[in-house]
Amino acid sequence: MIHDRERSALLVAAREAAGRAYCPYSKFPVGAAVLTDRGEIFAGCNVENASYGLTICAERSAVFQAIARTKGPLRIRAALVYTPTQTPTAPCGACRQVLNEFGPDAEVFSVCDGPGTIATILKDLLPQAFGPHNLNP
Length: 137
Ligand code: THU
Hints:
The protein has 5 helices and 5 strands; from the N terminus they run αββαβαββαα. It has helices at residues 4-18, 58-69, 93-102, 122-125, 132-135; strands spanning 31-36, 41-45, 76-82, 107-111, 118-121. By secondary structure, the protein is of the alpha+beta class. Bound molecules: tetrahydrodeoxyuridine.
């Protein structure tokens, strides 16, 4: 379980990232932040494209940022998704799969400007996950 102060830091980072989202088509900004086992936090936002299908979600953007900036293996302890909405947004299926690669035991939080927060774990979001263990049993 992560500490309240770690969760607060994740929220600050995710909210800041949401402010940088490039989402002229959906007008749905998303910010995400991941906490590593070294206590580092990396954030990302969604980046859309005129060729819609090329859009990358905030969660994968955060994971890729973590990979690019971390020497050695990456372990993600927690991820937080922030949307400036009244209902929380859980990571999409593709992002769940990518999170699983580096944080199969991660806690996952979805926070918005309304009262509802989702606090769960990746294993509940992606049961029976296909992962590295399948390839290297
Ligand atoms: N989006 C995310 O960044 N994360 C999610 O978990 C759900 C969807 C983005 C993709 C797209 O830019 C916009 O939200 C609307 O789908």
